[in-house]
Amino acid sequence: MTMKFQNPVSFASAVNLLKSGEVCAFPTETVYGLGANAGDAQAVLKIFQTKERPRFNPLIVHCADMGMAEEIAIFSSTARHLATLWPGALTLVLPKRSNAKICGLVSAGLDTVGVRVPAHPLAQKLIRAVGLPLAAPSANPSGRLSPTSVGQVRRAFADKVAVLEGGECSAGVESTILGVEGQRVVQLRSGALTREEIEMHLGREIAIARSGAPVSAPGMMASHYAPNAKIRLNATGAKAGEAFLGFGDVSGSGPMAKNLSPAGDLAEAARNLFAHLHELDAMGANLIAVAPIPKTGLGEAINDRLLRAAAPRK
Ligand code: TXA
Ligand code: MG
Predict the structure, then answer these.
(1) CB of 100 shorter than 6 A to ligand 1
(2) Ligand 1 contact via 175 beta carbon (within 6 Å)
(3) Which pLDDT belongs to residue 284?
(4) Is 0.90 topped by the overall pTM?
(5) Do 64 and 184 belong to one domain?
(6) 96: helix, coil or strand?
(7) Helix (H/G/I), strand (E/B), else coil: 209
């Protein structure tokens, strides 16, 4: 029997659901996550089933603070220094503690675990109230657009998943994922915390994982973040029948045209990216032409998501 929830659910219901081994979607500053008790294999299995997510794709564990994170993962001095950027849009993939109360499914059988301390006040409050680390991938069916509002989560799962309301996500793209082995740092996925900010903090450059590298993050699947519509990149205008997603001066007109940031601001563009793609999809666009986006700063993550959205699908 499948439930339908009266969404959004109350904070107390969200806490009860998560404590009793159910899944519940919740807001973070990046995108909405689909949470479950990371120590409960049955609960974590429900995340994979709800999303139809391949079992080999590990989940990020969300902690309230460094203390909780240290019960799960082993921090090198470099990892510890990077963790001073928490709370925020940064996930560290670290060696998993042998006694971590995290079920094997969370890390897909790997001996590492992805950990993040989110900054969103409601995410913080939720993890503290449940009192346990929460495994949470983005709250979208596997391979589809990530959600940055309650409405998008509700539509994606037709209210068969409980959702806690926390407004629109302020960053709009997922966390940056860094693999840390000793003092070596590799960016596995670009995200809302820019590589420039991380390199400034570390005082050195970091490596970028090649796609197809053995240790990879998901985003690492070529086709991901796919809207229903097909995507054409680096477009200077819309052809007949195309919707248009502009940036800065490169804009279109009419009902099927949106602009990520008329002012050419990358933070605004990141915040609007998934929301605009969701909206153009909902309008029934078959093809979305997208203006060129600068590749620096947050543009790295925006271009990464757009490239995957445009990749050929199975
Ligand atoms: O901003 C975010 O990161 C959001 C919010 C909800 O926190 N979460 C998110 O989760 O984007 P998800 O599952 O959509 O992407 C997380 C990626 C996975 O695709 C996975 O490949 C990578 O993190 N990951 C997690 N644990 C890993 C590990 N042990 N080794 C390598 N990659 C890992
Ligand atoms: Mg995702």
Answers:
(1) no
(2) yes
(3) 93
(4) yes
(5) yes
(6) strand
(7) coil
- Token output for 125: 């409050």
* pLDDT at res. 225: 81
| Minimum-distance ligand 1 atom for the alpha carbon of 32 | 6
Asked whether 97 and 73 are in contact (CB, 8 A), the reply is yes
CA angle 25, 26, 30 (to 5 degrees): 115
Contact 227, 274 (CB under 8 A): no
Domains in the chain, number: 2
Atom of ligand 1 nearest to the CA of 136: 6
215-253, pLDDT tens digit by residue? 455 545 677 788 889 999 999 999 999 999 999 999 998
Domain of residue 298 covers 230-310
Q: Enumerate residues with CB within 5 Å of ligand 2 (an ion).
A: 138
Contacts of 22 (CB under 8 A, 6+ apart): 36, 43, 46, 162
pLDDT at 219: 47
Last residue within a domain, chosen from 174, 208, 242: 208
Residue 280 and residue 158 in one domain: no
pLDDT under 70: residue ranges of the chain: 1-2, 211-221, 314
- Cα-to-centroid distance, 224 and ligand 2 (Å): 8
Q: And the tokens for 187?
A: 């960016």
Of the listed ligands, the closest to the CA of 34 is 1
Asked whether 117 and 86 are in contact (CB, 8 A), the reply is: yes
What pLDDT is attached to residue 176? Answer: 98
State the CATH number of the domain containing residue 185: 3.90.870.10
DSSP result, 15-65: HHHHHTT--EEE--SSS-EEEEETT-HHHHHHHHHHHT--TTS--EEE-SS
Say how many C-beta atoms besides its own lie within 10 A of residue 216's C-beta.
18
Identify whether residues 203 and 235 lie together within a single domain: no
Confirm or reject: Cβ of 43 under 6 Å from ligand 1.
Answer: no
